[in-house]
Amino acid sequence: MTAKKFDQQLLSLQDKLLYFALSLTANDDDARDLLQETTLKALTYRNQFVNNTNFKAWVFTIMKNTFINNYRRDQKTRNTFDSTEDAIRVAYKHNYASETPENVYAVNEMSSKVEKLDDDFRIPFKMHTQGFKYKEIAEKLDLPIGTVKSRIFFTRKKLQEMLKDK
Predict the structure, then answer these.
(1) Which of 73, 85, 131, 148 could disulfide-pair with 81, CB 3.0 to 4.6 Å?
(2) Which part of the chain is the RNA polymerase sigma factor 70 region 4 type domain (predicted)?
(3) How wide is the angle at C-alpha 138 spanned by C-alphas 134 and 140, nearest 5°?
C-alpha cells in the first residue's frame, strides 16, 4: 500500500476511531488523546502493516491495545506506595484530614504489635506493607518465595489474634 493510500484510509477512519475511543474512555478529552496516540502509532508503524489484510482491524487493534496499556500504567501509578516511614498508616489510611483519635490509636497499636514480632516475621511483613513484591522480598532476604508468602500470611493471622477485642 502506498503512503498516500495509507494516509487516506487512516483519515477516513478518524470518526469511527473517535467513536470507539469514546466507548472505551467515556470521556471526550481522553478519547481525543487516545485517537491522537493511535494515529501517531499507526503512522509510526506503517511499515508493519501487511498489505492485503484488514487495515481497519489493524488500526482498531492498535487503539484497543493502547487503551489497555494506558489503563494498566495508570493502575500501577495509582497503586504505588508512599515511601514514608509510616508505611502502615499509608497502606490503611485514605484521608488524613479525617483522622480520628480512634484511627490514630488503632494504627499506633498495630505498629507496636508489629514491632513486637520476631524478625523472621516482622521484616518480610514490613517490607510487604512498604510495597515490595513477594519476589523482591525473597531476593533481598535470600529466602524461598513460598517462605516469604507464608510468613506474611502468618503475620497477618498473628496480628488479627493480637488485635482482637477482648
Answers:
(1) 131
(2) 114-159
(3) 115
